[in-house]
Amino acid sequence: MLWSTFDEEVEALRRELAAASPDVSIMEAIRIAVVAINHYSADDVPELRTRMNLIGSSPGLYTGAAIHYDAWERAVSDFVAARVGQPHDSLYPLAVGRVTLAACRAAYDRWVARADTNLTVYLDAALVALAAGFADRIFTNEPRPRRPGTR
């Protein structure tokens, strides 16, 4: 039950990535897909904090989280592999899947800590920075909250 929404998100991510235009870069397609499937707002934070605290306080639940994170990572890696014509367990698809998951988890953690805007603001900023190779020019102030209804 704790992971049912997350598992649905993985399937939605796969669908969004499959629908990505071949004219869009790999990282842009991933960013668009990730932002499209995450519909959490600041109002969702209390429930999500409770869920994450429960998972973090139980070794069994925490260990089980790896299975779900792996499925999310594989969705990205499979997409990259198909785009570049490599096996899904090749270096680049694996690397993109893993760093994308790490960037999204960092965005999620920061969003939960601040609860000041929609999750998509943090996801978008983290994935833009990742796509830019975390170049020095990316390291500016944290994302600013946007008014509700703006992107």
What do these coordinates show?
It is built from six helices and no strands. The protein is mainly alpha-helical and 151 residues long. The longest helix is centred in the middle third of the chain and has 26 residues, at 59-84. 24% of the residues are buried. The mean pLDDT is 86.
Write the layout of secondary structure elements.
Layout lengths: L3 H15 L7 H12 L7 H13 L1 H26 L6 H24 L4 H13 L20
Helix pairs in contact: 1-2, 1-4, 2-6, 3-4, 4-5, 5-6
Summarize the structure.
This protein is mainly α and 151 residues long. The chain has six helices and no strands.
Quote the average pLDDT. 86
Q: Can you summarize the main beta sheet?
A: none
- The run of helices and strands is HHHHHH
Helix content: 55-70%
In total, the number of strands is 0
Termini, distance in Å? 30 Å
What overall form do the CA principal axes indicate?
A: globular
Coarse structural class: mainly alpha
Backbone CA Rg = 15 Å
- State the low-pLDDT regions, or none: none
Describe this protein with a few key phrases:
single chain; 151 residues; mainly alpha; 68% helix
